[in-house]
């Protein structure tokens, strides 16, 4: 595997899984006061567009990375609205 | 411009600019208790790898999108550490 591909895969894993500790923190504490609602609304819409882009291009890495990001970001957005 | 390109560009603009309202909120309130430190540490490392990937591939959209994401996410990370 080329070094670029390894760096790209690692980058995708990190920027996707980064949302797991934030989701876990909100689930645990039920506190979302300092989290921006607008950030997660804009981010979730953006991820839906990334997913659409991946589907239109039939690009599996883009599809998979954005499905996971969308799951984690949607959990945070849902809890932000729930615990508002 | 093809519809995929427009959707991809819009997706990149949204997932990049999503961090602006979060950065603005933290700058305004100086409150970061509910924000996950681990999320922003992992995310910033991931963005540095995305930027490296873009530079290695000489892919300007990846480079530009990740420079902006890196600026906004780094501001949030810096303030999270500062106001901890």
Keywords, please?
mainly alpha, homodimer, globular, Monooxygenase, 84 residues
How is this structure best described in words?
Two copies of one chain form a homodimer. By secondary structure, chain A is mainly α. Chain A has helices at 3-17, 19-29, 37-57, 60-82. In chain A, α1 runs parallel beside α4 (60-82), α2 packs parallel to α4 (60-82) and α3 (37-57) packs antiparallel against α4. The model of chain A has no long low-confidence stretch (mean pLDDT 95). The interface between A and B is large, with 41 and 41 residues.
Short description:
The structure is a homodimer of 84-residue chains. Chain A has 84 residues and is mostly helical. In chain A, 83% of the residues lie in helices and 0% in strands.
Helix run count of chain A: 4
Mind summarizing the main beta sheet of chain A? none
Question: Distance between the terminal alpha carbons of chain A, to the nearest Å?
Answer: 46 Å
CATH topology of chain A: the name is: Monooxygenase
Order of helices and strands of chain A: HHHH
Mean pLDDT of chain A, as a whole number? 95
Beta strand count of chain A: 0
- Structural class label of chain A: mainly alpha
Strand content of chain A: under 5%
């Amino acid at each position: 595997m080329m070094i670029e591909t390894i760096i790209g895969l690692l980058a995708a894993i990190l920027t996707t899984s980064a949302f797991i500790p934030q989701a876990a923190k909100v689930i645990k504490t039920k506190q979302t006061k300092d989290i921006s609602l607008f950030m997660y609304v804009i981010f979730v819409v953006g991820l839906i567009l990334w997913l659409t882009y991946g589907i239109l291009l039939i690009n599996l890495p883009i599809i998979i990375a954005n499905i996971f990001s969308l799951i984690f970001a949607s959990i945070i957005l849902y809890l932000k609205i729930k615990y508002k």
